[in-house]
Amino acid sequence: MAYSEKLLDHFKNPKNVGTLDKSKSNVGTGLVGAPECGDVMRLQIEVDDASGMIKDAKFKTFGCGSAIASSSLATEWLKGKTIDEAIAIDNMAIVEELALPPVKIHCSVLAEDAIKSAIADYKEKNAKA
Amino acid sequence: MSTDRLIYLDNNATTPTDPRVVETMLPFFHEIPGNAASRNHPFGWKAEEAVDYAREQIANLINVDSKEIIFTSGATEADNLGIKGVYEMYARKGNHIITCTTEHKAVLDTCKNIEKTGGQVTYLEVDAEGLINLEELEKAITDKTILVSIMWANNETGTIQPMEEIGKICAKHGVLFMSDATQVVGKLPIDPKATGVHIMAFTSHKMYGPKGVGALFVNRKNPRVKVTAQMDGGGHERGMRSGTLNVPGIVGFGKAAELAKNEMASEAERLSKLRDKLEQGFKDKLEEVYVNGSTDKRMPHVTNISFKHVEGEGLMMTFNQNIAVSSGSACTSASLEPSYVLKALGLGDDLAHSSIRFSLGRFTKEEDVDFALEAVSKGVTHMRDLSPIWEMYKEGIDLDAVEWAEH
To answer: What number is the ipTM of this complex?
Structure first.
């Protein structure tokens, strides 16, 4: 199975690996997947309260090379976007960028789910009572 | 890792053909081109003579009569011929076959096929070490049982089944005993007759011979076993397997058997030391390392290890430019299901996804093992740094209590 150069680069040199302080009100955390399924993705966003822009994004992923590359790419794309722009990221864009083979499309779906889940967590924390 | 080094630790998938075997085969492509079934000229005679000699070499390795060796295209065909052949030949006696859940697909799918045609199959479960339960085996035998088919050693874990005890149970009940011995022949000294095995499938390419040739041992006396041919044709191999014999392949298979006979004892000792070094090395360097299958009743050259909280395919990608191994991870299979063999041992899906099989061989050197130990440990550490569940485990979170968003 030959993977694309972009995918291999994200796998070998993953961007934005790490953990944000999930207790902060401007940090949204998404944890998707399950160990039994062979992949778990945790994606976090830190939103600048004044501008509403995502100023930082971090991930950790348990999974295959495509899952790690998909989440690394997702964090790259998230930085500098507004919440509305971020929520519009489509898994097929990840598939195209990394040239994921058909059996690995679920990795991109998981990344999209992780983005949406992190945003939902952020919104829930910041919902006006 | 920036090195051109290529290390092959996937010898249970296939072994490199020994150069001494290749050399023996070469004349049989051009200089001695005959069909072993051509009875009326020297080309045929020479080919037949070479096949007879190889048959002796192979029979000698497993201590059977050369007339009891039926050549096939490989172990898959031999498994098919053994099981379907018995099922058809002994249809009047019964229609029940007993096998186990950790067999190779060549046995399991053959049994599934038999079920579709009206046969009955019992799939024995295995314990945490991968061993069948002898009492369950005996209980499963009915007056309709015609065959028990249990693999000698497992391809994924190397676990060796209690063959002599199974042989005794089969003899007591007058049931034929077959074994897929693909992973054992040429690696450990085995004697099917003394073990009570009547039919045995094996192949050349797992013992440093060429691909495309295998054999079925079929017992000729006490009891005289027959299998119904699964291919129609010229009636080769005493009518049990038609088709022109693969003379160069068979010659290579024979030479591989001769070499194995001479070298397997010292090789088994050397490889088990290297295997133990590899296993101990991982345990010393890393936490949460689990060896799958029996560590007592097993082949000397293989270890199947789960590196917890790391996914197998991802891990392999950290070193697969340099080291070849296999994984039980779903991501390496077309079905997206983790290894059914490891699941049958009772391993959770998470550990099955985390497994790597290292199978050493004749051409594995100690420095290869040392290199693999370093590279794989480095990969595990890298993947754990990336793993959210490793982080959660380290924080003391009970992963079983987490409500995962399964997809």
So the answer is: 0.91
